[in-house]
Amino acid sequence: MEYVKLIAESLLYMNGISPNDLESNNVPVTECCHNIVVRFNVAVNQLLYLVPLYIEKRDVASDKVGLREDLEKILNLSSTMKYDFDSLEYTSVWINLSNDQRNTSDFCLNDDEIELASLFAERCLDVDQKLLGQKWLERMPEFLAFVHSYCSEKLISLIPLVNRVNSKLVALTSDVLLGLYESGGHQYKFVRKGTSLKSHNLLLSSNSAITNAACAEVKINLINDFLQQSIFPGLVVCEHIHNESIVGVSEVEYISDETEFSCWKTQFMAI
What would the pLDDT profile of 169-178 be if each residue is shown by its tens digit? Predict the structure, then answer.
């Protein structure tokens, strides 16, 4: 379902990460989700805001000023480290989320990134680029491990939220009896009709693309509003029953809330 990717993107954007080309594994709606794999690319210069937090959380004593200067230089200039079609402008993040919140995949550097940084560190004739490659190999592996951990932490609510959405979707596919009412020897059976998973996926996946934290917050609010809905909105139909036989069926009506249903029910029974 498309909304899984959109929720993941929203959680990342709301925490300062701007993912590109985010992908996730297929999550069956009808089964409890125990594992989600999320993969995306992120421009390394967008990770500058994480440098102070990374340095603050380091346990070992080090030249923090030198470390910060090195990382800021690497993150700002990695886009210049290009060879053919390869570049260190972006880094790939691959996260394996588990339902027990303990079994996350170990961080592993991308082989292509290591090879390209090594190429600059060992063979580049430009002294500045050569030094940048050496600093990348020295500083970035541990920093990118921190970025992986940070993203994993911010996505920890993804599985519970997806499971809640899936449970809601499954519930909405079934008809719900709203009531059986009698009037003048006649019975009126009101039913909210079950709707397709596809229609709700389109609803949850609608709106403009997520490009910033504000858009992400709108998306998460949309998901939360959807989860808080009770029976309505939905499509309602009324069966007119007389002498235990159905003598008429109304056209399907879109009802937005309890108040609208009460008015529609009263008008229908008065006909």
Answer: 888 888 888 8
